[in-house]
Amino acid sequence: MNNTSDNLPVIGSDISWELLHCDNQSGFLKIHDFSQLAEVKGDKIKAYARFTPYGSVTLECLENQSFYHLNICHKIDFLHLHNAFEWIDEPDNRIQAFEEMDLFIDEPYDGSPPDSSRTYTTFWNTTDVEVLIGNFSFCSEGHHLLRTLAGAFLPKLYVWVCPKGFLERFVYKKDIGLTGRKGAMVFLPLVQWKPNF
What we know:
This protein is an alpha+beta fold. The protein contains six helices and eight strands, in the order H-E-E-E-E-E-H-H-E-H-E-H-H-E.
């Protein structure tokens, strides 16, 4: 499949978030490409052109094995995505997050038996990460009236940075061979940004 944004269904016009959630039990989509169409200086955002989105993303839904295009039209959503990709560009952030969440392991992550002749010093699935987004605005009962009245003007996206392979393990219920705290921490984001309204 050609996954260029030109020939992908656009979320919000070709397909709704609500319909996507019928196929997408995890609620999250994986970002494959993030195009910034605005400049960020501190907390200030300036679009490159008037009446255009601040950015766009190419997304993958694992459950239905399809790709989608999403225009980022809210400043806060765009800023959160920008911050997420800035965060992962700094290797020390990832190493610190893996350390804090105790995601270092002493055995190979591929499930093969430990080899007593060597000491494993690798990370769980390395410190590679993936960025996920989800829109749960239409599911929020506590803010239903607010969303009905002003939903188009509010930020919507939850942005998670997770260990690479996070979504596959969650969606396909893969046995990761970890129990206890480490087993639980693998299913939490390393860092997240969420809409505040």
